[in-house]
Amino acid sequence: MIRLPAGPRRLWRSVAFRMALQYGLLTLFFMAVLLTVVYVQAVLGQRHHLDRQIGLGAQRLAARWQQGGVDAVAEQIAQNLVDGVDSDSEVYLLQGADGARIAGNLAPGAGWRPTDDRIDSLQALRGATTARMRVLVRRLPGGQLLVVGRDLHDLRQVELAVGRATLAAGLVALLLVAVGAYLFRRDIEARVATIRRTAARIEAGELGQRIPGTDEADEFAGLGRDINRMLDRIEQLMDGVRHVSNTIAHNLRTPLARVLMGLRQAQRPGTPAAAVQAAAAQAVQEVEALTVVFDKLLQIAEAESGTRRHGFGPLALDDIATGVVELYDALAEAQGAVLTLQTDPSATVRGDRDLLASATANLIDNALKYAGQHGARAVVAVRVERRGGSARILVRDNGPGIAAADRGRIGTRFHRLPGAVPGFGLGLASAMAIVRLHGGQVLLEDAAPGLLAVIELPCLEA
């Protein structure tokens, strides 16, 4: 096995070099075929023209024999050799039945045996010099031998001229291929180098770096835009991870501190049994609340990772909404709230029943918490509908609503609006993650009064 030196090996490992080499070889092969075709066509075309002239000349002399016999043919040959029209390349021989030359400039019979009625190439004595020629031999009815031909000197000159032109064109093509391959490789390496430099700076910690954009619409520009979008998403996710980590630490510190203080107080000597039980009950309550937080976070992480997508199947949204509304009926009645439902059997989607039920429950739970502000009776209306290619679950309450300026951060983990009811700010974040997993979106709109929350999902076509 031949082992290349280190330099050529590095060059060969370059995809840009191999692509440029393939481009160059393909172009060179095409040029070689094209030049060969041009050369062959030029030379063969000239030879075909020459053979046609020889055939026509033989036919004219044969016709002269029909008109005036051997003397007429001899006279015509003599005239052709002095008329100045191709006289320097014409070859003629009229030979008698006895082998003696009657007319012409070709030496009879010396070292050549051409085939009758077929044009052949031969080398013979023409005048005082030996020449390469194409000749046609024809037997006349009187037994005479007629030879008509052309010297190949002019054809050889054409062949040499075409050959030199072809060689020059081949060298120019080779030079152009080499220059083109070099420019091709340089352009690819320059475009790839831009991406590599950006990747190296991001690896060094400059996460805000992006591949410079261009106005071009080629594949590298598209790749750069795709990578930039991917980097934007990665940076967004990392910011989210940092935010979640910081927020979890902040939100866990307070309940854990309360649990720790309660338990320490319960450990003090002489603490009444009732106080110890109360501290234990408080600790259990706080730990259960933290368990709910972690369950929500795990549900959000599971939804965002897409691990549940493989179990998706056809679902009717009205079945899901009916089940969730029945679950919250007792809570609504206890709060003195009105909870209504309108369904649409045609609103079907593809998804996970438990996840979509959880998202719907989050919206209804939030609506029940905020409905009925300023002394009005709480009213929550749930409706399932199909609109165009979308299936929707709409939850409307008559609460204070959310200002348009605050809706941008709704759904951010642990984000709670001023004046919000106690909680951890994970309900809407969980619902939005579940709906995104299903290819949909959660919309929040002003209901005047109140808020309209919409789960919009791609409808499953029948």
Structural class: alpha+beta
**Shape verdict:** rod-shaped
- Strand order in the largest sheet: 2-1-5-4-3
- Give the strand tally: 12
Overall pLDDT score:
78
Task: Describe it.
There is one protein chain. The protein is an alpha+beta fold and 462 residues long. Helices cover 56% and strands 17% of the residues. The strands form 3 sheets. It has a 5-stranded antiparallel beta sheet with strand order 2-1-5-4-3. Helix 2 (15-82) packs antiparallel against helix 3, helix 4 (219-267) runs antiparallel to helix 5 (273-305) and helix 5 runs parallel beside helix 8 (427-437). The longest helix has 68 residues, at 15-82. Mean pLDDT is 78; it is low at 417-424.
Helices, strands, pairings?
Elements: H1 6-13, H2 15-82, E1 90-95, E2 101-104, E3 119-126, E4 129-139, E5 145-151, H3 153-203, H4 219-267, H5 273-305, E6 313-316, H6 317-335, E7 338-342, E8 348-351, H7 353-370, E9 379-387, E10 390-397, H8 427-437, E11 441-446, E12 451-458
Parallel strand pairs: 7-9
Antiparallel strand pairs: 1-2, 1-5, 3-4, 4-5, 6-8, 9-10, 10-12, 11-12
Helix pairs in contact: 2-3, 4-5, 5-8, 6-7, 7-8
